[in-house]
Structures are given as structure tokens and as C-alpha cells.
Amino acid sequence: MHALIIEDEFLIADLIQDGLRDLGYQSFDIAESEAAAVKLAAERCPDLVTADDRLTDGSGVEAVRSICENRPIPVVFITGDERHIRDEVLDAIVVQKPFRSADLKDAVGLAITKRIWFRQTM
């Protein structure tokens, strides 16, 4: 399984990757910007996307909107501003930073088993 991690903080991206590896994900792309995320997803469609919203260059929410425009992909937002995500994305699955591996595991499980995909809210 392949995951796209949209996160501009290297250490946090590394923690997410470790957590996803424990859940059976075997390959990863890490995008530090909105544009890089969209490009990487176009090159290889991920089985899961994790995204922070506020990136140094762009928005994780906008990247996810572009990536999921024509295809359903489970998405977990990992952010320090849960309220902002919930205001922007209907039915968002959100893990609040700082997070524990159990939080990530629960959120990924919910995204996949409940089939809660990113939905356009606009």
C-alpha cells in the first residue's frame, strides 16, 4: 500500500511514516508543498493521504481537494488546528498534533473501514 504524506515538518512527516509503516504501508511520498503533493499524487495514486493544512508553501486542504477531485481516496488530516479543518472539510477525520501512534491508527482505520472519503464542501 502507498501513502502520500503532506507535511512540511520533516520530523512530523517521519513520525507519520513510521506509524503508517506499522499499519502495513510499504511505500511513501512526502510532499512539503501543495504543488508537490498534487504532482506526486498524479504520478502515483495513493491508497491513503495524510495532510497538514498550513504548509510553508500552500494548503494541505487545497492539495487534497485537487487530488480527490475525481477519485475517492481516504484522507486523514494531521494538524495543530483541528477547528480550522472542521470548518473547511465536511466529515473530516482529524488527528490533533501532537499525536500518539494509537491516534493515527484509529484515524486511518476509521477512514478505511468506514469508507469516509474526502468530500467536496464547496
TrEMBL record:
Record-linked SUPFAM superfamilies: CheY-like
Alphabetized Pfam families for the sequence: Response_reg
Keywords linked to the UniProt accession: Phosphoprotein
Domain Response regulatory: 2-112
BP GO terms, sorted: phosphorelay signal transduction system
Keyword Phosphoprotein in annotation: yes
Recorded coiled-coil stretches: none
Modified residues (4-aspartylphosphate): 52
Name of the featured protein: Response regulator
Species of provenance: Sphingomonas piscis
